[in-house]
Amino acid sequence: MTTAGDIMHRGAQWIPAHETLDRAAQLMRELNVGALPISDENERLCGILTDRDIVVGCVARGHDPARTTAGEMAQGTPRWIDANADVSDVLEMMEGHQIRRLPVIENKRLVGMISEADLAGHLTEEQLAGWVERVYAKRAPR
């Protein structure tokens, strides 16, 4: 059985909810990632921040990324998966919620992230094509 822990990218890092978006952008650059899980004061997942969120949700609306926090951008119910979950559960979660990045949790701690690139490296072409179709086909415009 292939698990979430087997396919995830290790070394994911939180951005605390109180951190500003300019700091989040710097961290994304340093880590070479396009998304960061947002943590509350107890290091619990409270959202995901993407580079697109910073640009479209803050900058394009005329807000100052040095004065807007990651927590202000957290919307909806954050999704995550246990490191021991089967890859079929990963696909079901991502497809069901039409998400492209999924934090992986083990013993209540962030241990990695699963992204499209991680799936591409571990799924067959047929599995990947089906996943892409289901995640992107019904995606509502933002």
From TrEMBL:
Limits of the CBS domain: 8-65, 73-130
Name of the protein in its database record: Hypoxic response protein 1
Upper classification of the organism: Bacteria, Bacillati, Actinomycetota, Actinomycetes, Kitasatosporales
Keywords in alphabetical order: CBS domain
Pfam families: CBS
Record InterPro entries: CBS_dom, CBS_dom_sf, Diverse_CBS-Domain
The keyword Secreted belongs to this UniProt entry's keyword annotation: no
Keyword Membrane among record annotations: no
PROSITE patterns cross-referenced by the UniProt entry: CBS
Transmembrane segments: none
